[in-house]
Specification:
Two copies of one chain form a homodimer.
Chain A (H helix, E strand, L loop, with lengths): L10 H22 L5 H5 L1 H11 L14 E4 L5 H11 L38 H20 L11 E5 L1 H5 L1 H12 L5 E7 L2 E2 L2 E2 L8 H7 L3 E6 L3 H13 L5 E6 L22 H10 L11 H31 L1 H12 L18 E2 L1 H15 L3 E5 L3 H4 L21 E3 L4 H14 L3 E7 L7 H9 L5 E5 L17 H6 L5 E3 L4 H13 L5 E5 L4 E2 L17 E4 L8 E5 L3 H14 L4 E5 L3 H6 L2 H7 L7 E4 L8 H4 L4 E3 L10 H7 L4 H10 L3
Helix pairs in contact in A: 1-3, 1-4, 3-4, 3-9, 5-7, 5-15, 7-15, 11-12, 13-18, 15-16, 19-24
Chain lengths: 674, 674
C-alpha cells in the first residue's frame, strides 16, 4: 500500500516551519484587523508535525478519496489551516494576505469547496468533531465494502483539532460516546488545551476531568506538551497503534504562544495582537520582521514534500488500476460511489404503490428506501433510537442489518438518542464521499439537530433527513412531540428542500428527487397516521410530484372558482372539501404542494399555470403555522392551519378541535364569502 | 425550620403503595391504548420512596415556593407522575382514567400549569434534567439573597428522574458539567438504568461508563438496586448528606417490572402491555384484578400524609410571618419576586439614550439590562462564554459580578460554551420562580438551543433570550456565524416575541416590554455594528416601540405613495432610501417594525392605520430571508433581503454585495415601477 517514508527532518527546520505557520497566521489576522491569532500560534507545532510527518494528501487533487482528513473543529483558528494549505500548495500564498476579505480563498471560518483542501465548513463549535466521527466511520465502512486484503483502496486516518469550546458542547459528548462505542480506532482527536476561553480562564466554567470522561467513553487518552514536537509525533504514532479505540491527545498549549504580553490570556483569543505585539513576538522568537515571511528552506522543504505526496498518490493510482483489473465489479462500484454518480437506470427502482391501500408515508418512506437501497449500496444511515417508529431500516439480505462496534459491514446504524451528533455524523459521511447518508427521528426533534441541518445546506451536501410524525396528528404524545412550526422552520433554511408527500407514491418520487439532487440536502416530513394511496388513473400521475407542486385534480377547462392547495395528509382533506363544494355546484382545483422549494424552482410559466394570478380565492390547508405560505396565498387567500401549539389527544379528535375537518372548513369558506 | 418527622411505614404498606402506582400506571396506559408502561412499572419503588419519605409538598398550593421540586425528565413515563399526583391529592383519581385524552389533566407528557403539581413540561429528552439544574441553582441563589441564619425561607431539594435517553443526549452532559462545576449539592438525580431503549438493549448504542463520566464531572455517584426500597431511601439520605456535589443515584431497574412476559424488554417501553399481560402481572404480584384499584390502607396513608404536609406548610407560613416582621425589607422583596410581580414604578428605570450617538443595539441592550437590573434584583443570567461580545454583564455594585462554584451571590453566570444547557437552565430558573432569567449568545447559535426556546414558549415562561450579532453584518466571521434565516425561524415559534430594535431607545423599550410580559418568552436580535441613536424630536417617540410596529417618520397628510417597512439596522437604510425618494418628489412613509408578533396583537384599526390596505407599494427591508414578511408585503410588495447564506468580508462590503445599500434599492424600485 501507499507506505510513505517519513523524511528525516531536523528539529531546526521543523521549528522554522512551525514559526512560519505561527507568523503567517499572526500577520494574516493583523492585516485583516479581525480574527483569532491565539489558536494558530498555540497550535503551530501540532500543525507542523501533522503536515510534515503524518498527513497523506494530494494537493493536486484536493478531493482524492483516500486522503487523510484533517478537520479544524475549532474553526475560528482558520489562519492555522490556511497557512498549512498555502505551504502545501493548495492555495496561493497571496490569499493569506486577503484573509477575511470578500471573494478571497481565506474566509473567516474554513469553507469546504470554496477553499481547496478544506475538508469541512467549520466554526459552530464541535460540529467539526462530530463530522470527523462521521468521516472516520465512513472510512471503515468503505474499507469493509470495497477493500480486498491486497488492495486497500480506502485506508486513511481522520484527524481533528478541537478546543475547549468543542469539549463543552454536548454535541462532542454525543459524538465521542458514539465513536468510542463503535471502536473508531482511526480517529485521532487533538485537543488544544490552552485553558483559555473567551470569558477568561476555563476554570470559570469548565472544571470537569476531560481525560477521565473520555476514558469513560472508551477512548485512548494521552497527555502531552503541545509545543514539544517529539512528544506530538510520539503521541500520534501511539494513537495510530491503538486500533480499537479512538484517540484523544490532550495537548497542553499556550494560547497565542510567542506574543510576549498576550500569550496565555484571553486577549490572544479573538482579536488581532496589534502591530507592536506581532513585532515583539517576532523579535522574541528571533524571526524576521517581514510580513508573511516564508524562509527559503521552508519553501524548499515543501517542494520536496509535494513531490513525495505526488509519488505516494501515483502508487495509489497504480494500485487502483490493478484492483480494477482484478476485481472489476467492486472496483467499478467503488469508483462510481466515490464519484457521487448514481448507477444507470437507478430510477427504475422507484416503487409504484397500488391505489386503494392505506399506508402512512413513514411506512411508504421505509419501502422506498428499501427499493432504492437495493440498487444503491451507498445508501446508509440510521435513526436516533426510533427506528421502530421511523421505519428506516434497509434490509437487503446482502449484509448484516446493522453495523456493530468494530464490524462495519451493514446498511444501518444505531445512532442512539443523539440527534445532534447524528446530524454531524451524517454530514461527515456525506463529506467523506462514497456514501449517501440519512438520519431519522421525529420531526419535533429537528430542534435538537438544527445546526447540522443548516451546515448540510451551507455545504451543499446530499445529507438526507428523515422526519416522521410530522404534525399534530402525532396525537396522544401531545405538544412536546407535535411539530407545529417545524415545516416553516425548515423551509426558511436556504438550499434545503423540504418534502411533505401526501401519499405513498408522492413519497417514492420525493425520495427519487432527493437522491438525484447533488447540490444540497433534503428533509422529509412523513406522517405517523395512515393515508389513502391515491388512484393515479383518476388523479394526476405521481411523477408530477417532481415539480414540487402540481394540479392533482383538475377543474374542468381550468375555470376554477376556488383553488385548494395542501401538503401531506391535508391533501386528502382538500379532496374531501372539494367534493362537498362540487356537490354544491362550485368549480374547484386541487393543488398538491409537497415541496414549496422545488415548486419555486420551476419556470414562472409553469407556476402561473398551476396557480394563476387571476385565481384569487386560494385556500391553503396545512396542519402547521401559516409562515411560508403567505406568498402563495396572496392577499385574498384563506389559511386553514394552526397558530399555537398542539394538545394531547387521539388524532381524529384533534382534527376536529383544530378545525381541520371538512365541515368546519366549508363553514369558514362560506363566512369568508368564498 | 420545616423539619418533617419521617413516619414509620412498614414495608408491606410501602410495597402496596408501589404496586398501586405500578398498576394505576399500567391500567392508565392500557385504557388509553397508548403510552409508556415500562418506566412507571420499573420506577414504582423509587416513586414510592420519594413520595412517602422525602418530597415536601403542599398539594393544596402546588406553586408553594419552597416545595421540593420533582422533575420527570423521562417525561414519556408520565403515568408514574400522574399516579403520584393522584395519590397525593393534586388531581382527581378519575383523571387517571382519561390518560392522553383531549381536555384531560393527564396529557401524554407532563404539562406544567395544565396539570397541578407538574413542575415542568417534559418529554424532549434531557430537557427536564437541564431545567432541574436551573431549579437547583435558583434555589441556592434565592437562599443566598433572602435567607437569614434563622429564617431559611428557601431551602428545598430538586429531584429529577432520568432515563438512558436523557444520558445519551449531549444536553445532559452540558448541564451535568455545569452542575458539577457549580457544586449544586442539593440536586439529586435518579437514573432509571433499565438497560433498554426503543431499538433494544442499550448495549446497541450506549456502552460508555456513565458512573465514571459523572465522577469526572464532579458528581457524587451511587449504585443501587432500584427495586430495593431500603436501598433507595439510604441512597437519597446519603445524597442529601453530600452538600458540595450534585448526586447521581444509578438505580438498576427492570423496565415494566411485574409484567411476566414483557418486563426487561423493549416491548414494555412504549406500548400498552395488552389486557392479558396486565392481568398476568396483577396475578403474579398478587394484586386484585380491579382496574385503577387503590387499597383502603393506601388511601388512609395518604390522608395522613396530606395532613402532615399541611402541617409542615403551616410551620413555614408561620416562619414567613416572623421573617416578615423581623426583616421587613427583604421579606417584602422575597414575596414580591416569588409572586412574579415587578416593583411599582420599575418602568421609570427605562433608559433614555441621547440622540446623535452611535451605538450598537447589543451595547444598548447591555445598558438597558443594567438600568433595569438596578431596580430588579431578580434579573439574573449569563452568556455562553460570549459576554465580552454579547455585553450582558449586570454590574450593580451590590453583589460580586459573577456567581462562582458554591458561592451563589451575584447577578451573572458563566454558562460556558453550552448553549443548549443554558436554555434549559434559564427555563429552570424561570419555572422555579423568584428570578427573571436571561441567556445570551450569538444569534446563529440559537440553532444549538432551539429546543429550550420552544419549551419556554410552550410553558409560557418569562425566559429572556439575548441574541447579538443578528445578521450578515457580523461581517468577517462569515456564513457559519451570520444568521440569515434565524429571524424567520424564531418568529414561527408560537408565543415567542422576537424583537429586533433599530436603535438604543427601541432596545430599551423592547426590554421594558419583555420584562412586563408574564405569559411568554422574548428573544432579542441585537446588532454587532454601531447604529445611530435617532433623534426622537424629529422621529416618532421611542415609546411607540411598544406597539411592535409604528410610523417612525410620517408622510405628510398620510398620502404616501410608497411605504418602507424595516427592522433593526435596516430602518436606517430605509431612512436613507426615503430621503433620496423624497428629493425626487415622492411621498414616503417609514414604518419601524421591531416586533411583528406584538404588532399583530394590536387592534386591526391600529394596524390598518400604520399599513393601510390601499398602500400597495410596500417595501420591506431586512437583512434576512423573506419568510414571515409576505403577509405584510402583500401581493404587490418588494422584499429587499437575502435568499441564500451570507459570505465572509467586512460588513460594509457585504451590504453592497447583497444590495442592501440605498442606490441599489432605488434602482430596484425604479425597475419595479414603484
Amino acid at each position: 500500500m501507499t507506505v510513505q517514508a517519513s523524511p528525516v527532518i531536523d528539529l531546526v527546520l521543523l521549528q522554522k516551519i512551525a514559526n512560519t505557520i505561527r507568523f503567517l497566521s499572526a500577520d494574516g489576522v493583523q492585516k485583516a484587523k479581525s480574527g483569532h491569532p491565539g489558536l494558530p500560534m498555540g497550535c503551530a507545532e501540532i500543525a507542523t508535525v501533522l503536515l510534515t510527518k503524518f498527513l497523506r494528501l494530494d494537493p493536486a487533487d484536493p478531493k482524492w478519496s483516500n486522503r487523510d482528513r484533517f478537520i479544524l473543529s475549532a474553526g475560528h483558528g482558520s489562519m492555522l489551516l490556511y497557512s498549512m494549505l498555502s505551504l502545501a500548495g493548495y492555495i496561493p500564498a497571496e490569499e493569506l494576505q486577503k484573509f477575511r476579505q470578500l471573494h478571497s480563498m481565506t474566509p473567516g471560518h474554513p469553507e469546504v469547496d470554496d477553499v481547496p483542501g478544506v475538508d469541512m465548513t467549520a466554526g459552530p463549535l464541535a460540529a467539526g468533531f462530530s463530522s470527523a466521527v462521521g468521516m472516520a466511520l465512513a472510512e471503515r465502512i468503505m474499507a469493509e465494502m470495497y477493500n480486498t486484503p491486497k488492495y486497500e483502496v480506502t485506508e486513511h486516518y481522520t484527524y481533528v483539532l478541537m478546543g475547549d469550546g468543542c469539549h463543552m458542547e454536548g454535541l462532542s459528548q454525543e459524538a465521542a460516546s458514539f465513536a468510542g462505542h463503535n471502536k473508531l480506532g482511526k480517529l485521532i482527536a487533538i485537543y488544544d488545551d490552552n485553558e483559555i476561553s473567551i470569558e477568561g480562564s476555563t476554570n470559570l466554567a469548565f472544571t470537569e476531568n476531560v481525560n477521565a470522561r473520555y476514558e469513560a467513553l472508551n477512548w485512548h487518552v494521552q497527555d502531552i506538551d503541545g509545543h514539544d514536537m517529539a512528544a506530538i509525533e510520539n503521541a500520534i504514532t501511539e494513537a495510530k497503534k491503538e486500533t480499537k479505540r479512538p484517540s484523544l491527545i490532550v495537548a497542553h498549549t499556550i494560547i497565542g504562544k510567542g506574543a510576549p504580553h498576550k500569550q496565555g490570556t484571553s486577549h490572544a483569543h479573538g482579536e488581532p495582537l496589534g502591530e507592536e505585539e506581532v513585532l515583539a513576538a517576532k523579535q522574541a522568537m528571533n524571526w524576521p520582521e517581514e510580513k508573511f515571511y516564508i524562509p527559503a528552506e521552508v519553501k524548499a522543504f515543501f517542494e520536496q514534500k509535494k513531490a513525495e505526496w505526488a509519488e505516494n498518490r501515483a502508487v495509489w493510482d497504480k494500485m487502483l488500476a490493478e484492483y480494477d483489473s482484478k476485481h472489476r465489479k467492486i472496483a467499478k462500484e467503488f469508483m462510481r460511489v466515490t464519484s457521487g454518480q448514481l448507477p444507470l437506470q437507478w430510477k427504475n427502482a422507484t416503487p409504484d404503490f397500488p391505489a386503494g391501500e392505506s399506508m402512512s408515508t413513514r411506512v411508504a418512506g421505509g419501502k422506498a428506501m428499501n427499493a432504492f437501497g437495493a440498487v444503491l449500496p451507498e445508501l446508509i444511515g440510521g435513526s436516533a433510537d426510533l427506528e421502530p417508529s421511523t421505519k428506516t431500516c434497509i434490509k437487503t439480505g446482502d449484509y448484516p442489518d446493522y453495523i456493530a462496534p468494530g464490524m462495519f459491514l451493514g446498511r444501518n446504524l444505531h445512532f442512539g438518542v443523539r440527534e445532534h451528533a447524528m446530524g454531524g455524523i451524517v454530514n461527515g459521511m456525506a463529506l467523506h464521499g462514497g456514501i449517501i447518508p440519512f438520519g431519522a427521528t421525529f420531526m419535533v426533534f429537528h430542534d435538537y439537530m438544527r445546526a447540522p441541518v443548516r451546515l448540510s445546506a451551507l455545504m451543499k451536501q446530499r445529507s438526507l433527513w428523515v422526519y416522521t410524525h410530522d404534525s399534530i396528528f402525532v396525537g396522544e404524545d401531545g405538544p412536546t412531540h407535535q411539530p407545529v412550526e417545524h415545516l416553516a422552520a425548515m423551509r426558511c433554511i436556504p438550499r434545503l428542500n423540504v418534502w411533505r408527500p401526501c401519499d405513498a407514491n408522492e413519497t417514492a418520487y420525493a425520495w427519487q428527487h432527493a437522491l438525484a439532487r447533488t447540490d444540497g440536502p433534503t428533509a422529509f416530513a412523513l406522517s405517523r397516521q395512515n393515508l389513502p394511496v391515491l388512484d393515479r388513473t383518476h388523479y394526476a400521475p405521481a411523477k408530477d410530484t417532481l415539480k414540487g407542486g402540481y394540479i392533482i385534480e383538475y377543474d374542468p377547462e381550468g375555470k376554477a372558482e376556488i383553488i385548494l392547495i395542501a401538503s401531506g395528509s391535508e391533501v386528502h382533506l382538500a379532496i374531501e372539501v372539494a367534493n362537498i363544494l362540487r356537490e354544491a355546484g362550485r368549480i374547484v382545483r386541487i393543488v398538491s404542494m409537497p415541496c414549496i422549494e422545488v415548486f419555486k424552482e420551476q419556470a414562472e410559466g409553469y407556476r402561473r399555470k398551476i396557480i394563476p394570478k387571476r385565481f384569487k380565492k386560494r385556500v391553503v390547508i396545512e396542519a402547521g403555522v401559516i409562515q411560508g405560505w403567505e406568498g402563495i396565498l396572496g392577499d385574498s387567500g384563506i389559511f386553514i392551519g394552526l397558530d399555537d401549539f398542539g394538545v394531547s389527544g387521539p388524532y381524529q379528535e384533534l382534527a376536529r378541535h383544530f378545525g381541520l375537518v371538512a365541515d368546519s372548513i366549508i363553514d369558514k369558506l362560506a363566512s369568508a364569502d368564498f
